[in-house]
Design a protein that fits this description.
128 residues, mainly beta, Proto-oncogene - Oncogene Product P14tcl1, eight-stranded antiparallel barrel, globular, protein serine/threonine kinase activator activity, TCL1_MTCP1, TCL1 family AKT coactivator B, protein kinase binding
Length: 128
């Protein structure tokens, strides 16, 4: 029997904090695990072919809300450098704003079987 996604769950978490590499915690203390990070050329970069143009990749992140084995959270200075923000804050229009002011669109927020899933895509500067 194929598993189907439930309708949209409504409001995603208001804030997500990195506690360990690839693991975030929301305001309710639930953990979100980064399952997939996909980098792909942006539409803007593909359409430009100029040698001096910047080719920023488009980043899409798939996160699952699931319990993880409890461990001490790491401080921000202990976390390795990543393309993903340390903190995401939900803003109007189903978008998150990262600490570095980058915007991330909520592509999907659904429940598949018993797993809540959140898909975010980085919006490139000038696309908001």
């Amino acid at each position: 029997m194929a598993s189907e996604a439930s309708p949209c769950l409504g409001v995603p978490p208001h804030r997500l904090w990195a506690v360990r590499p690839g693991i975030y915690e929301d305001e309710k203390g639930r953990t979100w695990v980064t399952m997939v990070v996909r980098l792909s050329p942006s539409q803007r970069a593909r359409g430009r072919g100029s040698p001096g143009g910047t080719h920023e990749p488009s980043i899409t992140v798939h996160m699952w809300q699931m319990p993880v084995h409890p461990r001490e959270p790491m401080s921000p200075s202990q976390l390795p450098l990543s393309q993903l923000p340390l903190v995401w804050q939900l803003y109007p229009g189903r978008r998150y704003r990262a600490m570095d002011s980058r915007l991330w669109e909520v592509v999907d927020h659904v429940q598949i079987t018993s797993t809540e899933q959140l898909i975010l895509m980085q919006l490139l500067p000038g696309s908001d």
